[in-house]
Amino acid sequence: xxxxxxxxxxxxxxxxxPVIPPEGTAANKAFSPADxxxxxxxxxxxxxxxxxxxxxxxxxxxxxxxxxxxFSEGVFPCMECHGSIPANGERRVLEAMHGDIVLHxxxxxxxxxxxxxxxxxxxxxxxxxxxxxxxxxxxxxGQCHGTQYRDWRSGIHGKxxxxxxxxxxxxxxxxCHNPHSPRFASLQPLPPPVRPQxxxxxxxxxxxxxGGPGTxxxxxxxxxxxxxx
Amino acid sequence: xPDPRTDAITCGDTEDDAKxxxxxxxxxxxxxxxxxxxxxxxxxCSPEVREAYLQKHxxxxxxxxxEARLGRLHADYAKRFGTQVQVSALxxxxxxxxxxxxxxxxxxxxxxxxxxxxxENNQSRNPQIQWIRVLxxxxxxxxxxxxxxxxxxxxxVPDPEHFYLPVACQQCRTPQCTRVCPVGATWQEPDGxxxxxxxxxxxxxxxxSACPYGARHFNWGEPEVPAAELNPNMxxxxxxxxxxxxxxxxxxxxQRVRAGRYPACVEICPVGARKFGNLLDPESEIARILRxxxxxxxxxxxxxxxxxxxxxxx
Lengths: 229, 314
Known about the structure:
Chain A is mainly alpha-helical. Chain A has helices at 3-15, 79-82, 137-144, 146-153, 173-176, 204-209, and strands spanning 123-125, 131-133, 161-162, 168-169.
């Protein structure tokens, strides 16, 4: 390969500017059922999605309901504060504001402005430089988590509610995963079942209330609930 | 030799008893008396009791008889629980076979599904009946039912040393429970759901011993469902209140899925580990999972061919 070709490629790379398509063009189009005709073939009313509807208005397409991104109270729009603060590109621990955010998401390699756009904090920034609204944050997540993104779009990853045969409600990645610390948080389990030997007695409820009758390991059952004693 | 026509039924087991109490009557007289007594008994009963005695198998009911049965159930439950309920007999849709998949790499064992199921399906609170059983298993051992513990109760789940395997009815394609039922009170519907006719079940529990998954549960006592927590959206073969002495099991929330909705356990699962859909629709979530993921069924060697699949999403 000649030096001229290499130089030409380098020039092209250096001169390439981030493409920021205006609102409404293909790259910024709202995610709509038309994008996944197989999944959203049938439309009907959705129960349980009341109070959702935070998806941005698309070009006449019926949007599938996704709840609003789970912002902390009063934090959005970001530019209300950041509009008057010059962007600080220095990597640092935040103290004055956002001190509650602990970055636990590949923090060795990344920090705030890798995902949040420095100039327009109301949008997220893809690796290509394209801006996406918070309601489409899955596109940002999908840049690294491609298999999860693919599975999410086809309904394998993530939670869907509504109708197996009709319209479904998706959740954004950030509804289950805190973007700054994405590991799924632990939960307290609901009470264990009552052991068969206690099923008949009236004190079963009392026993359950006091933390479950007996915890000795040698009475483990193999999954059969038959209270046959 | 006695005349066969006067072959007598004697009260008492021994010759001596017969001599002491020589009450004899012919077979014809006996049967006539029994018939008369039954007819008299039924004639003297309330219509509800008469109906209960003359109840036909659900599959033998004509559409008007189904309607009549639903009407009686409405009245009965309205009286018992003091609230209006809706019992449906919605049949299976053509071209639909339900399948279920559970992502073992996601399940954290929080038991939200267990209690959502109890509430949705009007399971007895005391004595406790739970259709879903979440088994805690050691990661080191893998799937080992002998060492599984359903009674785990740590402060927080998931425990790093364990994984969790929820088990409910596997909705087998070749269900052994329906095969052994001596009265045909349980069968597989066209959409693959194994159901029970609670009016027909005699409570012999043969099906429970035939089920390799421990998925069937017996009402040893009078089921207790608080009226305030009763789910009024019912299906006659599903979550309607059961009488004492019958077997019950998961029906994929037949009252929900026949109306197009997801089962309650799918709706509640906080990690989205539970997937449900139509196996015959190649674009459904469940069909995609079967194509794209590593899928297995429990106790495959028994050839029960479950429609409940487990998979690893990652």
